[in-house]
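During the no-cost extension, the postdoctoral fellow (Dr. R.K.) reprocessed legacy sequence entries with the updated structure-token encoder. One reprocessed record is reproduced below for audit purposes.
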Amino acid sequence: MTLGIPTVAPVASAVALEQVSVAFQRPVLRAITLQVAPAETVAIVGESGTGKSTLLRLILGLQRPDHGTVRVMGSDVNAIDRHALRAIRAQVGMVFQGAALFDSLTTFENVAFGLREAGVLREDALRARVFETLALVDLDPEQVSHTLPAQLSGGMRKRVGIARAVAPRPALVLYDEPTAGLDPLTSATVTDLMQRFQRELQVTSVVVSHDIRAMLRIADRVALLRDGAFAFLGAPEAMRVSDEPYTRAFLAAA
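Re-encoded structure tokens follow.
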């Protein structure tokens, strides 16, 4: 199977946040610095309201930092024009917590949506890419292509959402709570897919999740947010033996 690995100019960091601060009614992020290397998976974990989703919005250029710099594929997303930002976003796939499929579109049309928006594939190539991607997420294209989201199980909808995100073969995929609401077996299937994309597509992944056990299994590094700053940032093995009090308490409560 030809997976169509994206061709992008090499950069030192796929994502780089430098001294980023954001406040709403109160400080949400406090001088956060984080570099994500190409083909690396970084999981951002923490309690609700600690700024995890804000980090995803910053990377997408949907939220401007009050202070600091956000670079994606080497470009400052807050210092480029709309056309350049659109080009950056074309290299980014987004997997939403609830899959966020279009209810009135079939599975095929949901997965094809981003490809049609890009307009770079002929119809025969687009169909082949959609079928290839559905197979990549362990769904039978012939069986599910004509189904509507309401006809799919929660786990299948999640996989279709992932397929839609990776169909354009992005260099970077952002995941918002990819295992939320899934049973343990389906959750394991989803995380296995995430690892496959990193291995076979060389995808860089930034994952926001409450599922610390799954993240310790699949992430290259884990960042634990507390009060707008990182209580821990490092390899899963280091996190498991960390002496930092909040990190120990967070793992004990998982």
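Residues 7 and 171 are 8 Å apart (CA to CA). The longest strand covers residues 27-36. The remaining legacy entries will be reprocessed before the final report is submitted.
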